[in-house]
Amino acid sequence: MTTATSPRALAHPARDEIRLEGVLHALSDPMRLRVVRELATASEELSCSDFELPVTKSTTTHHFRVLRESGVIRQIYRGTAKMNCLRRDDLGALFPGLLDSVLAAAAREAGRLGTA
């Protein structure tokens, strides 16, 4: 895991430290999957405050930490905002097709359940 170099830097796993079971665990939660779906369609990094999740702020923070520590997202401070983006290249190199398959399945499920 790359360690934080300053108080505002966040630790992320290096590509070779990302594990399939961690990624699958991170993607198994509906709130975290919702975050990943939003990031997948975003044209740029999104701030944590851009997400409207029906959970408390502390729970939202937990979900972002799980996604970051599993290697699904990268978080970086820009000023006072914590910005988020998918680690699409890293996940694609390690698990080809996994992210796209999960996102497609989530979209189909949302359509089927009327929650798109």
UniProtKB/TrEMBL annotation:
Transcription regulation keyword on record: yes
Q: Where along the sequence do coiled-coil regions lie?
A: none
Q: Does the keyword Membrane apply?
A: no
- The segment(s) forming the HTH arsR-type domain are 12-106
Which SMART domains is this protein grouped with?
HTH_ARSR
Q: Which InterPro entries match?
A: ArsR-like_HTH, HTH_ArsR_DNA-bd_dom, HTH_MetalResp_TranReg, WH-like_DNA-bd_sf, WH_DNA-bd_sf
Any Pfam family matching the protein: HTH_20
What keywords tag this UniProt record? DNA-binding, Transcription, Transcription regulation
PANTHER family in the cross-refs = TRANSCRIPTIONAL REGULATOR, ARSR FAMILY (PTHR33154), TRANSCRIPTIONAL REGULATORY PROTEIN (PTHR33154:SF12)
What name does the UniProt record give this protein? Helix-turn-helix transcriptional regulator
